[in-house]
Amino acid sequence: xxxxxxxxxxxxxxxxxxxxxxxxxxxxxxxxxxxxxxxxxxxxxxxxxxxxxxxxxxxxxxxxxxxxxxxxxxxxxxxxxxxxxxxxxxxxxxxxxxxxxxxxxxxxxxxxxxxxxxxxxxxxxxxxxxxxxxxxxxxxxxxxxxxxxxxxxxxxxxxxxxxxxxxxxxxxxxxxxxxxxxxxxxxxxxxxxxxxxxxx
Length: 200
Fold this sequence. Notes:
Elements: E1 3-9, H1 16-28, E2 33-38, H2 53-64, E3 70-72, H3 85-95, E4 100-106, H4 107-112, H5 119-125, E5 127-131, H6 138-152, E6 156-159, H7 168-176, H8 187-196
Parallel strand pairs: 1-2, 1-4, 2-3, 4-5, 5-6
Helix pairs in contact: 2-8, 3-5
Protein name: Probable nicotinate-nucleotide adenylyltransferase
Domain Cytidyltransferase-like: 6-173
EC number: 2.7.7.18
């Protein structure tokens, strides 16, 4: 059976930490493909300033274009309405019925998932895969994981992997303050940020 994962996120901007997580998931879960899914209009960030969806999509596209097992989807960025994860999973599971689907996201999303729209359907449609983030107790994460698995008869994978100390938030802050960020992301992504004067 083909095994594919959707890696959801704002990717504002995508950086080496995201690529590191993707490769760890690819190898540890023996995946055939990882599809990066830049969020279009995420309902939980409506009040935050988020870079235009198509620009974020282009940055991800250029970041993964030479990676054989990575691709990027414009599915959410081309939607006119809000982007809900369960809708995205419904679309892809119907598109490829014989594929085993995974969904990769941060552990913060696991802890908050019961506030997501139609979250039981998310857990039914895929194997939910979460990577750790600073500030989260592994003990509490595992408690949440087991509780959700038992309640919804689902499978959740916790990827306890060494993380690169990089965040999109800190990159945006560094750019605004005139600091170099070329060591934190693929060169082509850095070029887009410089050419379009993003985050300044």
